């Protein structure tokens, strides 16, 4: 069996890894470079139980366990570690000492206090997203998978139009027994070819500082200029860097992933916010100024499964803020669906791609 995966983000490469483990012949087609988009620029924060109470809970719990298993068994280092996670409150206007409940790490500024613990090493972890995504691809290649550079610009169909027989890559048909659409927010392009609901791209900015403080992940409530609240996230990493995100963007998704750039002034604002939380961190050297789009659906849940009404084609996208966390269980589920007996470890019904109305192809072209 030959499977063609469109998109080399964390979802596509994790699917490639789990399929290749089952001996399936897999190719990943990537337009710009593995992990060039959100899967290389996200926070890499993982939580066991933060999706509890939502239909995502079983996927998240399974995936949190798979992350630990992969880190323990594969011969790659992607900075996986269990961490404490703290809720921090910070303000430029008021003295925050009355909110202080726990001792703050020494690198936080005097007006940032630790309000409570959000997670312990039993329930929260971190990884370096680009390293994890490329490790999944490289493990898949070791199992016989191939990586094709190219742009997917259509699908090939059998004579009755009811079955996908491959993808059109840079104008040339590449045949496959099954095709997986895993192009993150660019999966919206597949709505031109298949009956699928909309997938949106939500932009976020981030900075990588050359600074290695104590390892806690932090979710900050920052009272910012004019009393506005904002929620930056801070993830120190074991490679001597610290990742900060928390500023959204308005630019529409460009067709070419290589054209995703930070918006004017965004990096400066994010640095200023960071300096309010920790002057030491905010003053350190910036190694990367980044922007990326997370893929989101109308109801906030992923699209994961066979595309309704058309044979030989699957979709896995819309993982929103939890794509790094949920990638392994998503890859496992796709491998079970495509190369197993159809039974899946996780009940995929909440993620059925047919649960919402398909959008008209003309809407995408517009
Ligand atoms: C600021 C920010 C912070 C985040 N923090 C976290 C976090 O802490 N924890 C967590 O679990 N999740 C986090 N996320 C979410 C997570 O990053 C995403 O859900 C995940 O990366 C999506 O992966 P993907 O593979 O679906 O998409 P992408 O990473 O977008 O990959 C899609 C790939 O498809 C390729 N592509 C596009 N068009 C084509 C084409 N025509 N042909 C071939 N290839 C194509 C692109 O080049 C890209 O490589 C964060 C997201 C953002 C934006």
Helical residue percent? 10-25%
Tally of individual helices: 8
Q: How many beta-strand segments?
A: 20
The main sheet comes to: 8 strands, mixed
Indicate the multimeric state.
single chain
Q: Provide mean pLDDT, rounded.
A: 96
CATH topology of the largest domain: FAD/NAD(P)-binding domain
Globally, the shape reads globular
CATH superfamily of the largest domain: FAD/NAD(P)-binding domain
Over all CA atoms, what is the radius of gyration?
A: 21 Å
By CATH reckoning, the class of the largest domain would read: Alpha Beta
Overall number of structural domains: 2
Give unreliable regions as ranges.
Answer: none
Relative strand content: 25-35%
Q: Under the CATH scheme, which architecture of the largest domain would be assigned?
A: 3-Layer(bba) Sandwich
Which cofactors or ions or other ligands sit in this model?
A: flavin-adenine dinucleotide
- Element-level helix/strand string: EHEHEHEEEEHEEEEEEEEEEHHEEEHH
The N- to C-terminal Cα distance equals 36 Å
Structural class: alpha+beta
Question: What key phrases describe this protein's structure?
Answer:
366 residues; alpha+beta; FAD/NAD(P)-binding domain; D-Amino Acid Oxidase, Chain A, domain 2; eight-stranded mixed beta sheet; 8 helices; 23% helix; 30% strand; binds flavin-adenine dinucleotide
């Amino acid at each position: 069996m030959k499977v063609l995966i469109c998109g080399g983000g964390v979802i596509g490469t994790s699917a490639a890894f789990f399929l290749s483990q089952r001996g399936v012949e897999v190719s990943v087609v990537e337009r710009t470079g593995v992990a060039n988009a959100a899967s290389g620029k996200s926070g890499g924060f993982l939580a066991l139980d933060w999706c509890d109470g939502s239909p995502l809970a079983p996927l998240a719990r399974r995936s949190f366990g798979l992350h630990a298993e992969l880190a323990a068994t594969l011969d790659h280092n992607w900075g996986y570690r269990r961490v404490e996670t703290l809720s921090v409150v910070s303000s430029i206007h008021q003295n925050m000492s009355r909110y202080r409940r726990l001792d703050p790490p020494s690198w936080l500024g005097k007006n940032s206090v630790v309000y409570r613990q959000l997670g312990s090493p039993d329930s929260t972890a971190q990884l370096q997203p680009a390293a994890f995504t490329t490790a999944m691809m490289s493990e898949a290649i070791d199992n016989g998978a191939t990586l094709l550079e190219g742009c997917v610009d259509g699908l090939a169909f059998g004579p009755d139009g009811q079955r996908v027989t491959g993808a059109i890559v840079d104008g040339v048909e590449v045949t496959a027994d099954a095709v997986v659409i895993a192009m993150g927010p660019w999966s919206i392009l597949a709505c031109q070819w298949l009956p699928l609901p909309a997938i949106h791209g939500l932009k976020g900015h981030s900075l990588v500082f050359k600074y290695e403080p104590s390892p806690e992940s932090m979710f900050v409530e920052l009272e910012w200029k004019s009393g506005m609240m904002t929620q930056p996230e801070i993830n120190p990493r074991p490679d001597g860097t610290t990742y900060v995100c928390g500023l959204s963007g308005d630019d529409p998704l460009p067709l070419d992933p290589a054209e995703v750039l930070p918006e004017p002034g965004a990096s400066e604002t994010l640095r200023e916010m960071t300096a309010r939380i920790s002057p030491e961190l905010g003053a350190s050297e910036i190694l990367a100024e980044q922007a990326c789009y997370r893929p989101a659906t109308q109801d906030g849940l992923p699209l994961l499964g066979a595309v309704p009404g058309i044979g030989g084609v699957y979709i896995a996208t819309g993982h929103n803020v939890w794509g790094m966390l949920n990638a392994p269980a998503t890859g496992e589920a796709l491998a079970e669906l495509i190369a197993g007996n159809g039974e899946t470890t996780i009940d995929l019904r909440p993620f059925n791609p047919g649960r919402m109305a398909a959008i008209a192809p003309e809407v995408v072209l517009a």
